[in-house]
Amino acid sequence: MMRSILPFLGLTLSTAAFIHPGALHTAEDFTRINTYLSNQVEPHNTTWNLLTASTYAQSTYQPTPKETVYRGYNGVDSENYPSLYRDTAAAYQLAIRWRITNDTSYADAAINILSSWAASLVAIEGTSDKFLASGLYGYQMANAAELMSDYTGWDSSNKTATGTMLTNVFAAMNTRFMEEHNGQDYYHYYANWDLCNLASLLAIGIFTDNQTMYDYALEYVRTGPSNGALPVFAIANYTESGSEKILTQGQEAGRDQGHSTLDMVLFGIVAQQAYNQGDDLFAEYGNEILNAAEYAAKYNVGYDVPYTLYESYQGPQSVISNNSRGVVRPGFELLSAHYGQVKGLDSYWTDSYRDWVNVNSTNGVEGGGGNYGPNSGGFDGLGFGSLLYRISDDLF
Ligand SMILES: *[C@@H]1O[C@H](CO)[C@@H](O)[C@H](O)[C@H]1NC(C)=O
Ligand SMILES: *[C@@H]1O[C@H](CO)[C@@H](O)[C@H](O)[C@H]1NC(C)=O
Ligand SMILES: *[C@@H]1O[C@H](CO)[C@@H](O)[C@H](O)[C@H]1NC(C)=O
Ligand SMILES: *[C@@H]1O[C@H](CO)[C@@H](O)[C@H](O)[C@H]1NC(C)=O
Ligand SMILES: *[C@@H]1O[C@H](CO)[C@@H](O)[C@H](O)[C@H]1NC(C)=O
Ligand SMILES: *[C@@H]1O[C@H](CO)[C@@H](O)[C@H](O)[C@H]1NC(C)=O
Ligand SMILES: *[C@@H]1O[C@H](CO)[C@@H](O)[C@H](O)[C@H]1NC(C)=O
């Protein structure tokens, strides 16, 4: 079975059961978060207040599920994918709110969103952008479902239906994208396309206890042949004078900074999900994800970085792109928390970009879906990292 899916990877199949909840967040995370909140520690308290004020975190939230979602105008069907990213953000924010408060009105609102999409969604269409929808909203919906996985009020057939929908609609497209790249060669699609689809396979594998799916994505990140795989993503390493740290130029540095920061946000999601199952992608290739985050972060907070010409599928990119330099994109809280706080490594530039994003955000903390505008870019990450990942030394 695995050979026919991905014959070029040497897979080691593990037999250990999955930890639940265990995609982006574990039960221990919520114990820590609740301790901070009961002591009104910052920035957690302020981030919690931002979350509870969110349009997407209200128990009255009503989803608008579709039978077919369209992302990218194909000349015939109107795009309707904002329904999917809004409802998915809501399912996630409500699930977080339930886990922190135990108030079942949030749990019921979250599973209502998930179950109603499970009852209606059959396909994602549009242009090639449909594969961004399968990746981004796949990992997000699976994370919402995973947070709800131990809610006893979730009707078991509706929970199963949610897993089946995630597998048959999202994961099927995720796998197809990783295998076929929409009919293009391995270099055609920039890294973020792979990364969101890999994040989705990991999350759906965890939620549905599908070891085959999880292992496929894990090994693809480690040894795969296309731009989102760790060995392909790193274009060049540089030693930073002074710190003597390695900074790694990522695959989208010459394209634009919106995407080069998105790559790091998605790598963080991929690695956090695996880490919570005992697989430390963060550490691999000499902490490549940190080194690449440091490079992207340093440039985006206003410092120059070295650059090596990159031959993209669109032609040579001979200078780093200043397009959207300094973009305000949530997601670096996770990277700072893991590398700087959990591992105790030098994450100076990653922390600087995290802070840059926060000072430019509502209330000076990392927000989530709904806090960064109405368009899809504001919903690419799940956010609220200043609550969910930040470790405070102040308390203990
Ligand atoms: C924490 O948030 C609450 C609102 O939920 C607010 O009343 C309180 O002042 C905040 N605590 C601190 C220390 O800022
Ligand atoms: C929520 O429930 C869990 C498990 O029953 C318990 O450990 C936790 O303390 C509760 N949290 C709150 C905020 O009541
Ligand atoms: C299952 O989900 C459907 C679709 O949202 C809903 O109409 C139904 O009430 C749910 N069933 C139960 C038992 O909760
Ligand atoms: C588990 O994942 C594999 C690979 O994606 C897929 O072929 C298989 O159908 C999945 N199993 C179930 C029970 O959905
Ligand atoms: C960058 O450094 C890492 C860690 O030492 C190494 O695995 C990788 O091959 C290097 N990449 C390039 C492009 O030099
Ligand atoms: C941005 O990059 C272009 C192309 O290299 C360059 O011409 C322009 O001066 C740069 N703008 C700024 C503000 O650095
Ligand atoms: C974000 O904050 C930095 C540092 O305070 C500031 O220099 C920059 O102009 C801000 N960027 C945006 C897009 O608001």
UniProtKB/TrEMBL annotation:
Pfam families: Alginate_lyase
Assigned GO CC terms: periplasmic space
MF terms in GO: lyase activity
Keyword Lyase: yes
InterPro entries to which the protein is assigned, alphabetical: Alginate_lyase_dom, Chondroitin_lyas
Alphabetically ordered keywords of this record: Lyase, Signal
Gene3D superfamilies given in the database record: Chondroitin AC/alginate lyase (1.50.10.100)
Keyword Signal: yes
UniProt xrefs under SUPFAM superfamilies: Chondroitin AC/alginate lyase (SSF48230)
Signal peptide positions (record): 1-16
Domain Alginate lyase, chain residue ranges per copy: 66-299
Protein name in the entry: Alginate lyase domain-containing protein
Species annotation: Penicillium olsonii
